[in-house]
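Researcher: Can you fold this with S-adenosyl-L-homocysteine in place?
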Amino acid sequence: MTADAERRTMVEVLVERGIHDECVIRAMSTVPRHEFVDHRLQTSAYSDEPLPIGLGQTISQPFIVALMSQAIGISGGRVLEIGTGSGYQSAVLAEMGLTVQSVESHRELAESAEHRLRKLGYAGVSVVCGDGNDGWERAAPYDAVLVTAATREIPRGPYAQLRIGGSMVLPMGDEDSQELVKIVRAASGPTEEYLGACRFVKLIGRHGWMK
Ligand code: SAH
């Protein structure tokens, strides 16, 4: 099967699992996921599972990428992503027409993701190396924040960098399993909505784990 055909099959599975946002479906149908994984994993690039990207990290499962992209519920504006990893989630958000600021703590991953995104023409994504526990003040406020590493609690800095009415989607729980949560920054304070169970690699630092 060609990559295009495999991607079409992947998207059919996402739709069956409940992804309905046209903008997300279009983006997931376009971004070449095989460009974000090692050549040895090419045959698994479009299966609905997370894959290793080196340094003990993973590219998220397509369904979770689609669910998080759908949950922020915007089709324009600026998004902060915490945990660039391979850059795949950033590319999906950029393909949805969003401007993306992404923060990654591993310099090697930040550099390779930036290089890959540039090569693929995703000019609307900016990758920086830093600690996402603090968000990224310089490009704030954001219309949405996506945390793509497991947290123990709501990261205060990134929450404060959301505009009023903006939303944050993050996996919250313990090291082994988390719940995907959508937090809306309402004028009266945060509201929470639970989106289902998930399993992410750990956020390192204050709102995650020290190691
Ligand atoms: N969104 C990625 C997958 C993220 S995996 C993709 O689409 O491929 C989680 C990433 O979070 C890892 O790359 C890890 O290095 C990064 N990470 C962990 N703790 C972090 C922190 N404190 N700040 C920024 N990035 C962090």
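Model: Folded with S-adenosyl-L-homocysteine in place. The chain has one domain: 3-198.
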